[in-house]
Design brief:
four-stranded parallel β-sheet, about 50% helix, alpha/beta, 8 strands, globular
């Protein structure tokens, strides 16, 4: 797509990056077939191709309107279009640039600004944990819209962390909301790795991966989160004491694997960011090596008939497909994906379900409708956002796959 940058964008890092991405787009429209918002709304401007046109117009100096902002807001950043695109258009990076430019030129209504500020400052805050505990105490009194965002309190064994020492060690990112909302995911990860002879370490200084602030157009705040995590991990990484940095939330994994791109312009962090990316693994990437050991340790029958929802951040963001299903099947689980639209987003998409609830719940119900024929005992996924979002629309338990594996290990 030929682009003529406005003078204010020529020679700038964002302008040059956007132009390079735009020039790869050949207008084919394959992306419209796999875009969730286009499937729901049928509006070209709510498809990747339409949003690319809008961003192109902005960078060429055309007027920026509130309508432009809303069309970009409605994008889930699921990156399904990247998996579909035959030209390799890096839409995810382009839409972040476009949103950043539009945000600087279009003032949001006060209510929107307040909600977005609360999300980007509140979710990664140390105060989120106490606030979640309070919400759980009064959960029955909350309106349904808030109950959906407050899961029930975790059982006591959710905090049972293995204490054995192992020669093999990995770092794990605990995440910002996961320890408060679903702590058993982290401890179950540590127990499963312990059963395979791997010790899980946690760097106390690490926090939010940076995705929340980045996707809410606070690019500097997102970069600060990334630098803080690198600083927290670096002593163990530089000393060669860990063989991997494990992510059990695929949204965090997709973000951390993008650190080298995000910090490429920072001479103090570029090289270290590249090393962090090299070490970062989604938990499912460890499974092929672990399955033989874990198979000998399976004790409890547990739930065996599973419906699996692959998160967009895993199958499109990290381009990891089939690993969870293949390895859990090798461990004896009957695990299946939906016969239709398993590639489409469930509507969670980080803070999207808060900011765009109408579309988010339509996508949730559509996803659950495709999972229902599997008649599974448990729905499993690989990202806390998907798990929490899907759980609000079904009576079938929704869990992280590592929790089900942990149960089976007894």
């Amino acid at each position: 797509m030929q682009t003529t940058l406005a003078p204010e964008f020529k020679g700038t890092r964002d302008g040059e990056a956007a132009e390079a991405i735009l020039r790869k787009c050949v207008h084919c429209g394959f992306c419209t077939a796999t875009c969730p918002t286009y499937q729901l709304l049928g509006d070209e401007l709510d498809s990747p191709r339409g949003r690319i046109y809008l961003i192109k117009q902005v960078l060429e100096g055309k007027p920026v309107t509130r309508s432009t902002q809303q069309h970009l807001d409605r994008c889930l950043t699921c990156r399904n279009c990247e998996s579909t695109c035959p030209s390799g258009v890096q839409y995810g990076h382009l839409v972040e640039i476009g949103r950043k430019v539009v945000e600087e030129r279009v003032e949001r209504p006060a209510g929107e600004r307040a909600v977005r500020w609360l999300l980007k400052e509140g979710l990664p805050s140390p105060l989120f944990g106490p606030a979640m505990k309070l919400g759980q105490l009064v959960r029955p009194l909350l309106p349904a819209s808030l109950q959906n965002k407050v899961p029930a309190r975790a059982p006591a064994n959710a905090h049972r962390w293995p204490t054995r020492e192992h020669g093999r060690k990995v770092l794990m990112l605990m995440g910002c909301v996961q320890p408060a909302m679903m702590p058993n995911i982290n401890s179950a990860t540590a127990r499963v790795l312990d059963a395979a002879g791997i010790q899980t370490l946690v760097a106390d200084g690490a926090g939010c991966c940076g995705a929340i602030r980045t996707h809410l157009n606070d690019s500097e705040g997102g970069l600060a989160d990334m630098r803080r995590n690198i600083d927290a991990w670096w002593p163990l990484v530089s000393a060669g004491k860990v063989e991997a940095i494990v992510m059990n939330a695929s949204g965090c994994g997709a973000q951390v694997k993008d650190y080298a791109h995000a910090l490429a312009h920072d001479p103090a962090y570029a090289e270290r960011a590249t090393r962090i990316v090299e070490l970062t693994k989604d938990l499912s990437e460890l499974l092929p090596e672990l399955v033989p050991t874990l198979k000998t340790r399976l004790r409890a029958k547990g739930a065996r008939k599973l419906a699996y929802h692959p998160p967009c951040t895993l199958q499109h963001g990290q381009q990891l497909r089939g690993g969870v299903e293949t390895q859990l099947a090798a461990l004896g689980f009957d695990i299946r994906v939906a016969g239709s639209e398993s590639h489409l987003c469930c509507g969670s998409a980080g803070t999207y379900s808060v900011l765009q609830p109408e579309l988010a719940y339509q996508l949730r119900d559509r996803k659950l409708g495709h999972l229902a024929p599997l008649q599974a005992e448990v729905i499993v996924s690989a990202n806390i956002g998907c798990i929490q979002h899907l759980a609000t629309g079904t009576s079938t338990p929704v869990r992280h796959w590592v929790e089900v594996l942990d149960d089976a290990l007894g």
